[in-house]
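As noted in the main text, all predictions were made from sequence alone. Below is one such record, for WD40/YVTN/BNR-like repeat-containing protein.
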Amino acid sequence: MSVLLMIGTGKGLFLARRDEVGQAWQVSVPHFPMTAIYAVGIDPRPAQPRLLAAIDSSHFGPSVAVSDDLGASWREPEEAPIAFPAGTDTSLRRVWAFAPGSAAGDPSVVWAGTEPSALFKSVDGGITYELVRSLWEHPHRTQWGEGFGGQAIHTISPHPADPERVLVAMSTGGVYRTTDGGQTWTASNTGIKAYFLPDQFPEFGQCVHKVARDHANPDRLYLQNHHGVYRSDDDGVTWTSIADGLPSDFGFPVVAHPTRGDTLWNFPLTADGSRFAPDFKCQVYRSTDAGKSWQAQSAGLPVEPYYSTVLRDAMCTDTADPAGVYFGGRSGEVYASADEGESWGRVATQLPGILCLRAVEL
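Prediction:
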C-alpha cells in the first residue's frame, strides 16, 4: 500500500512517501522553501490525485500551487488565483483550507477558506477561484472576531450526497451552513458554548477550532471547540457534548475515520494558559462509539515529556483500510500509525514547525 503524505511547515512543503507498511518513509527536500504552507489539499477525484498547496511568501504574498504528478512539478499562476475583488475593501492574508466538492456534484468544484474569513469557489479543479459573496455579505460578518491564530475559515465540509449542502467553520464566528448551494447561509451553533461571552450560548461568535464529518454517516459531525468537544447528528443544526472521558476538552484537531462510522481521533491539550499535552504525555485519543467513550493511544510515541502543540490541520487520516492516522507538532516531528492508532512510528524529525498534513492512498 503506497501512501503520500503532504507536510506543510513554516518553511516549506515536504512530501513523504511509503510504498509498503513497515518500510521507512522517504521524505523530500522542501518544496517552496522559506514560505509558510498553511493549507494543503488532495483532490482524489482525478485519475492522478491533484495536490494543492497554499503558499504564504513574505516577499510575494499568498498564492496557490497545483501539482498533477504527485509533486514532481508544480503550476503557480502569474496572477494570484485567490484574491478579493475590487470594492471589498480588504486583501487576502493567507489561505487556510482546501476541500474538494461533493462526491455527488460537479467534479471540477474545489472550495478554499481564507483569512480574513471568506469562502472561495473554483469550478476548474482549483486553478482559479471566485469569492462566495453570499457568505461575505452575511449580516454577521462584521461581528466575526479574530482568534489567536487569526480570523479565518479553516473548515469546509461539503455533504458527500448533496452538493447543495456545505458547512464551514471559523475562528471566531462559529459554524455556518448552506442548504441551497451557497445562495444563503445560516449560523448553526446551537449547543456550542462560548464561555468567554456574556451570553455563553450565542447564535454565533464561538471559537470553533475544527470540524470533521463522519464518512459513513455523513449527517454526523464532530467538532473541537475552544473548550468543548461536540457531536452533531443532524448535519450541524444542533450539537451535544462528547467531552466526557477526555483528559481535557481543549485542543485543536479532530479527524474522522475515512470509511468506518462512529470512529474519530483528537489530540487534547491543557487549557489556555499552557496548551501542553495533559501531564506532558504524547497521547492521541480515539473513540469508536461516536464520542461516548475514549481510549488513549500512545504505543510507539515519545515517553519523555512532550511539550509540542498539534495544530488544527496538523492531524489527518489517509484513505486506506485499515486507516492510517498522522499528526505533527510545532517541534517538527511527524508520527504515523498504519493500524488506526494502535501503534505509531516516526515519519520525520527536525522539520520546521508543522502547520498542516494531508494523506492519500495511491
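The domain at 85-361 is CATH 2.130.10.10 (Methylamine Dehydrogenase; Chain H). Residues 133-136 form the longest helix (4 residues). These features were considered when defining construct boundaries for the mutagenesis experiments described in Section 2.9.
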